[in-house]
Amino acid sequence: MGFLDSLFGRREPTSREVAKERLQLVLVHDRIKISPVMLDRMKDELITVISRYVEIEADAVEVTFTQSKRESRLVADIPVVGPATGSTSRKTRARAGAGGNG
Q1: Model-level pTM?
Q2: Whole-angstrom Cα distance, residue 4 to residue 57?
């Protein structure tokens, strides 16, 4: 798949880009005083609530902070599979609760 990735412009981030992103994340956490534990709780609650309405891939959800010069943003990347069904949404919520802190 490396060929297709290069054909469509997808590439792995450089170590410099990864380090920059991590530093920005640390700075945002420091600035707004949200601990990683609190971020995990927020992620688990988002998964629980959104799973009531649509089926999602709970294991692939990413919640991060981004920062520009003027503002900080909470960004949630939530892969949606389709509309929630009774058994599917319960299964998604169970997966979200299994990895959470409570």
Answers
A1: 0.53
A2: 24
